[in-house]
Amino acid sequence: MYERKILPNLNCGLDLIGEVLYGKWKIRLLWFINEGHKRPSELQRKIPDATRRVLNIQLKELEDHELVSKVIYPVVPPKVEYSLTDFGKTLIPVISVLGNWGDENEERLQSVIMKRYNADSAG
Predict the structure, then answer these.
(1) pTM over cut 0.70
(2) How confident is the model at residue 69 (pLDDT cuts 50, 70, 90)?
(3) Phi, psi at residue 37, to the nearest 5°?
(4) How do residues 74-84 score in pLDDT, each as one tens digit?
(5) DSSP structure string for 20-66
(6) Which whole number is the average pLDDT over 104-122?
(7) C-beta atoms surrounding 28 within 10 Å
């Protein structure tokens, strides 16, 4: 397992939020859990591009940062459900604002993102 050799800079709010939300799928995981998709299989269906392993790692990190809680039900086979903690729920309005900004600037963002990929493939 990867072990960080340099401690993160935790003196700035942006660094703190980056430390907690860094990971390709974390924001989407938080959003989908808030929408009621609580089982790992449901989250996998909502994010089919992510592997189960990566989702499990990122869910564990969200759990370690006290944004989600995990309940394991004592049944066979084991049933696992995730839910947002009260602390995690405070992020939902922030994620909503970011999503709205993305929606409002969708065409421009798609254009600048694709420009990079088109340049990479041409060169």
Answers:
(1) yes
(2) very high
(3) -85, 100
(4) 999 889 999 99
(5) HH-STTHHHHHHHHHTT--SHHHHHHH-TTS-HHHHHHHHHHHHHTT
(6) 87
(7) 18
Cis omega (within 30 of 0) for bond into 77:
yes
Q: Which helix (H) or strand (E) holds 119?
A: helix 106-122
At 17, the amino acid letter reads: I
Long-range pairs of 67-71 with CB within 8 A, sequence gap ≥ 24: 67/20, 67/30, 67/91, 68/29, 68/30, 68/33
Q: What pLDDT, on a 0 to 100 scale, did the predictor assign at position 104?
A: 97
Which residues touch 34 (CB under 8 Å, ≥6 apart)?
84, 89, 92
Tens of pLDDT along 33-65? 999 989 999 999 999 999 999 999 999 999 999
Tokens of 20: 């907690």
Place of tokens 């700035």: 12
